[in-house]
Each structure stands twice: as structure tokens, then as C-alpha cells.
Specification:
Elements (H helix, E strand, L loop, with lengths): L2 H4 L1 E3 L13 H16 L5 E5 L4 H12 L3 E3 L3 E5 L2 E9 L5 E3 L1 H7 L3 H23 L11 E5 L7 H13 L3 E5 L2 E3 H8 L4 E4 L1 E3 L18 H11 L6
Parallel strand pairs: 1-10, 2-3, 2-7, 7-8, 8-10, 9-11
Antiparallel strand pairs: 4-5, 5-6
């Protein structure tokens, strides 16, 4: 067994099963119980969610573990004709992770790739302003980070996030996702200290949404509402 496989903490009873979570909040509660023995009230630890879909998963984790919640703003670079398909990702620090194999296959020109990256940088900048007020990421430095998303397919969004958090000075990075394709899980696990995923699935056909009985897009207003519930009330 590879070293990365040893870093994957999963639920054997949920392996290779579909529709195991009611919704993202339920998935987060399942992950929180898996993370609790290592992270509950852990000093210098924090939960970082990838918006937008990772936020409803991360909220119950942060609540259960009594840890601060923030966002790691990362967005995939999508095709103009299919915004669900991505060929890379841009992270909050401006760094870019591209799927070179896919780019060779689909034959995008260098100018088309640069235009896609530029559009995605604008999206990341907008989200960092709208959802975080353009705050910096100083709190990451020296922290044990639990990085959360709602699922892992190709893995380029998480790969970009991990690289950016390393560059920002995270002490350790543990990824927590409710569902992941086995090959992508192994690839990401090789780059982090631990990889928590209750629903690991193998096979050629894989979709993140197939782990959930209720699945829908998460908009920015929902993200802001969730974050507001976790912020301490201002003193009277």
C-alpha cells in the first residue's frame, strides 16, 4: 500500500456507495465526528472552506470542533462552452494550477487559456472581496489547517488550494471532503498530512453530486448567511 493511501481516513461502510448524505450539512456532521479525535478545540487550528459548496460542509465541522472558520477562495478555470468542466484552478494568492494533459486533449490555444485564467482571477478577486472583505491570510501562517470542500473529482481546485496554503505558511494541512474519487484522493493525500473522506468511490463514472440526496448550487448570499451565524455577536 502506498504512503498516500495510509493518509486516507475513510468509512468502509460508506465506500463505493451513492446518496449516503442527506445534504451538505449532514456530510459535514459526518466529517466532524471523524475529525474530532484529532482536532476538537485544538490550539492553532482552523477550518478553511472552499466557496461556495464547501461552506455548508465546513460550518458543522467548525461548530463541532470549536474552531474558527474562514474561506480559502479558489475557483476552477472553466471552458466557455461548459462551465461545469474545468481545466485548472486559480487560488487566492493568484497562483494557477493547470491540467496540462486535458489542455493537450481539447486543444485550447495559449491565448484562450490565458483569457480563461484572467476571467477566473477576476472571479477569485470578487469572491475575496464579497465574502471576506479582502482580508489577508495571515492567520494561516503557523496554523494547522483543515481544508474543506463538498467533494473531490479531478482534484485541481484542491491541489491549487493546498499549494497556496503551503506558500502562505500553514504548519500542517488536512483535507476533509465528504466524497472523492479514489484516484484523486490518493493524489491529494500524497501532498497533505491527512485526508479525511467518508465516501471514497472507485470506477469510471463518478460525480460529486451522486453522494447527496439533496444537491443544489450554493450562492454567495447563502455563504454570507452561514458565516454570519458563526461569528460571535458584537458586544452590546
Amino acid at each position: 500500500m502506498s504512503e498516500s493511501a495510509h493518509r486516507i481516513i475513510q468509512r468502509e461502510d460508506l465506500r463505493n456507495r451513492a446518496y449516503v448524505f442527506r445534504d451538505r450539512a449532514h456530510a459535514g456532521a459526518v466529517l466532524a465526528e471523524m475529525l474530532a479525535p484529532r482536532f476538537e478545540r485544538r490550539p492553532h487550528a482552523m477550518v478553511l472552506a472552499i466557496p461556495a459548496g464547501g461552506v455548508p460542509v465546513a460550518a458543522p465541522i467548525a461548530q463541532r470542533l470549536a474552531l474558527p472558520l474562514d474561506l480559502a477562495v479558489v475557483s476552477k478555470v472553466t471552458l466557455l462552452w461548459n462551465t461545469e468542466a474545468g481545466y485548472g484552478a486559480v487560488a487566492f494568492d493568484g497562483s494557477v494550477c493547470l491540467n496540462d494533459a486535458l489542455l493537450r486533449e481539447i486543444g485550447l490555444s495559449e491565448a484562450e487559456v490565458e483569457a480563461g485564467v484572467a476571467r477566473t482571477r477576476e472571479k477569485v478577486a470578487h469572491r475575496n472581496a464579497a465574502l471576506r472583505g479582502n482580508r489577508g491570510y495571515d492567520a494561516v501562517t503557523g496554523s494547522d489547517v483543515v481544508l474543506v470542500d463538498d467533494g473531490l473529482a479531478s482534484g485541481f481546485t484542491l491541489r491549487a488550494a493546498v499549494a497556496a496554503l503551503r506558500a502562505t505558511g500553514a504548519a500542517t494541512i488536512s483535507v476533509a471532503v465528504p466524497t472523492a474519487h479514489e484516484s484523486s484522493a490518493r493524489a491529494i493525500a500524497a501532498s497533505v498530512e491527512a485526508f479525511y473522506c467518508p465516501n471514497v468511490r472507485a470506477g469510471q463514472r463518478y460525480a460529486v453530486a451522486d453522494a447527496y440526496r439533496k444537491w443544489s448550487d450554493v450562492d454567495e448570499q447563502t455563504v454570507l448567511a452561514i458565516l454570519a451565524t458563526l461569528r460571535p455577536a458584537a458586544p452590546s
